[in-house]
Structures are given as structure tokens and as C-alpha cells.
Design a protein that fits this description.
The protein is α/β, with parallel strands linked by helices. The protein folds into two domains: 115 residues, Rossmann fold; 179 residues, Dihydrodipicolinate Reductase, domain 2, CATH 3.30.360.10. The chain is built from ten helices and 16 strands. It has a seven-stranded mixed β-sheet, with helices on both faces. It has a seven-stranded mixed β-sheet with strand order 12-11-7-10-9-8-16. It has a two-stranded antiparallel sheet with strand order 13-14. Strand 1, helix 1 and strand 2 form a beta-alpha-beta unit. Helix 8 crosses helix 10. The longest helix is centred in the C-terminal third of the chain and has 19 residues. The radius of gyration is 19 Å and the shape is globular.
Length: 344
């Protein structure tokens, strides 16, 4: 087929992401948002109506739409497997929200289902599409920094608590955990993406220190890569209420011939607007990474293969593997845990 890729959103449980992806699909010349599925009419329509898309609670009928080509899965993490399997069985390509699943078994089953159906499975690791990350990747690939010997990455946030977020995000059975699994998967993916190396050992500490939640809101992870590179990750929900930003990302990388320091808050403009939140806010003014990610996904569908810097289902599985090893380490007094897996 030619023309814009016809895409549906499956599930709006993670409404902020579902809404952002609906906006990106509507703004992209490569895509056409045709429908939004969710069992909850109010939730589904809150996304669909803003962009003139059809809402439905009839998933089997939606997946039988002969013109549909791809889906974006934004359901609760514990439901990613069923929705990805259903989409794959219908011959549809999939972009799945992170983390890929709550267990390695579910993640592996999702990869197998897409492979057997001959469809692509992408993961929404949007940080790969930040302009300054692309610059860092180009410098590393060109050898400008020599060999990487150490990295420190931070992706802090505010806890996704009701009423702004649904309760499932802080319910272990549905989300897989708290801050560690929520944000470390982004950081682990960037480590693998930038270095081309695999994580071999993980040591982690977690705690519920800042907010009234049933899951960890703070975490620190120490990684050792297969070439001996050491990495520190901070995925904590440690952004205080009232801050002009809700999430951040920063990276410090040391190589044998140079270093990189980047901070996504540096590319921002100060805004006061009730549409963005109460009081002063920081809004990015660089290229929209959501649109860049959805454009790459649609281009991949048209070309029949993932295009760089898209993340695949294998990338999602590897990041989940590290997160689960982090939980195992934290439960054992931060004792290092060996991580398996090969190149993606």
C-alpha cells in the first residue's frame, strides 16, 4: 500500500501517552489516525474526540478492518501481551508502549507472535529520537569520543498518581512495579543504543521514600556492560510538586578521547498557561520526538523493515530483563545479578 499508514490506538489506560501519540499521528504526513479503542467510553472518547477519530469498544471488528495497517498499544502494561497478540494475528504492525510487559515470558511470547505473523514490533523508546541523543549517537558511531568507559543517565519524574493518572500504574500486578521499571527501561535502552553493548551485571537499591505509594518511588542501578563499561542510572520519581517540569533526562558519558554532557531541560522555553499546568512551566522547543518516532514507525511499515533509530521488540525485552534483574538485586541487599541475553 501507499500513502499515509492507517493506524489505530489500542487502549488508552496510559492516557497521557495515548493522547500524545494521537496528536503525533494526526500531525504526521506519514500517518492517518483512524480509530481509538478502549473499553471505557469516557476514556476512549477523551482521546478520539480531540483529533476527530472514531472511538470503539469493539476490538474484534476494528482488527478486521481491511484497511487498517498498524496499531499503537497504550493499554495497561499487564494487557500489552493480549493486545499485541491480537494485532499480530490480524496482520497488523505494532508500536507498543514501554515497558514491553511485566514478565520476560510475556515479552518473549509477544516477540514470537509478531515474528510468526510476519509483522514488526516496535517499542516506544522515544528518547532515541531526541535531537541531542541523535547527535551523541552520531559522535559515538564516528569514533569521535573513542571507547566509552563510563556513563551516568538520569530520567526523574513525578509519580503517576490518581487523579491525573489511573491507579493501575502503581499496582505491581498491572504495571510490573514503580519508578524502577517505569523509567529505567528508557535509560537501559539508551545505554544499549548508544554503545552497542549488552548489560551483564546489575546491582540496585529501591525505596518508597517520597510519596504515598505501594511501589518504589526511588531507585538507583549500577550496570556493568559486556566490555567492562560501568553505568549508573537514576529513574526515580523524585521531582517535587510545583516544579516547572514533570520529567527530565540527562546523560554524562566519558570516552577515551572525549565526553558528552546533555540535558533535555536546556532546550526549553518558560511558559505560563492553564493548558500546560499551574504556574510557570518549561516547554521544549526542539523537534517533537513523538512525531519523529511515529514517522519512523510508519516509514518502517512502508519499507518492510525497522528504520533507525527505531527500537524493536528485542530492545524492549532486553530493557525489561535489566529492570527485573534490578528488582532481584534490590530484594537481595543490592547483590549484583548476572543478566543474560545476546545482541539485538
Amino acid at each position: 500500500m501507499t500513502g499515509p499508514v492507517r493506524v489505530a490506538i489500542l487502549g488508552c489506560a496510559h492516557r497521557p501517552h495515548a493522547w500524545a501519540y494521537a496528536r503525533a499521528l494526526s500531525a504526521s504526513a506519514r500517518a492517518r489516525l483512524v480509530a481509538v479503542y478502549d473499553e471505557d467510553p469516557a476514556l476512549g472518547r477523551s482521546v478520539a474526540d480531540d483529533f476527530g477519530a472514531t472511538w470503539t469498544d469493539d476490538l474484534p471488528t476494528l482488527l478486521r478492518d481491511g484497511d487498517l495497517e498498524a496499531v499503537v498499544v497504550c493499554s495497561a502494561t499487564s494487557r500489552h501481551r493480549e493486545h499485541v497478540e491480537q494485532a499480530a494475528a490480524a496482520g497488523l504492525h505494532v508500536l507498543c508502549e514501554k515497558p514491553i510487559a511485566t514478565s520476560l515470558r510475556d515479552a518473549s511470547t509477544m516477540l514470537a507472535a509478531c515474528h510468526e505473523a510476519g509483522v514488526q514490533l516496535h517499542l516506544a523508546f522515544v528518547s532515541r529520537f531526541l535531537p541531542h541523543v541523535r547527535t551523541a549517537k552520531a559522535a559515538l558511531d564516528a569514533g569521535s569520543l573513542g571507547d566509552v568507559v563510563g556513563m551516568r543517565l538520569v530520567n526523574r519524574g513525578r509519580p503517576p498518581l490518581p487523579p491525573h493518572y489511573p491507579a493501575w500504574i502503581t499496582t505491581v500486578e498491572e504495571s510490573g512495579g514503580g519508578a524502577l521499571i517505569d523509567h529505567s527501561v528508557h535509560l537501559t535502552d539508551l545505554v544499549r543504543h548508544l554503545t552497542g553493548r549488552e548489560v551483564r551485571r546489575v546491582a540496585a537499591e529501591t525505596g518508597t521514600l517520597l510519596w504515598d505509594t505501594d511501589v518504589e518511588d526511588c531507585a538507583l542501578l549500577s550496570l556493568v556492560l559486556d566490555d567492562g563499561t560501568v553505568v549508573a542510572l537514576d529513574p526515580s520519581w523524585s521531582v517535587p510538586a510545583g516544579n516547572p517540569w514533570d520529567y527530565d533526562f540527562s546523560l554524562h558519558l566519558v570516552g577515551t578521547r572525549g565526553s558528552i554532557d546533555l540535558d533535555d531541560l536546556a532546550e526549553s522555553v518558560q511558559v505560563v498557561s492553564p493548558r500546560l499546568g499551574a504556574g510557570l512551566r518549561l516547554a521544549g522547543f526542539a523537534e517533537d520526538p513523538d512525531i519523529a518516532m511515529l514517522d519512523a514507525f510508519c516509514e518502517s511499515v512502508r519499507l518492510g523493515r525497522p528504520v533507525s533509530p527505531s527500537a524493536t521488540g528485542e530492545d524492549g525485552l532486553r530493557a525489561l530483563e535489566v529492570a527485573l534483574a534490578g528488582y532481584a538485586s534490590a530484594a537481595d541487599g543490592a547483590r549484583p545479578v548476572v543478566v543474560g541475553g545476546g545482541p539485538s
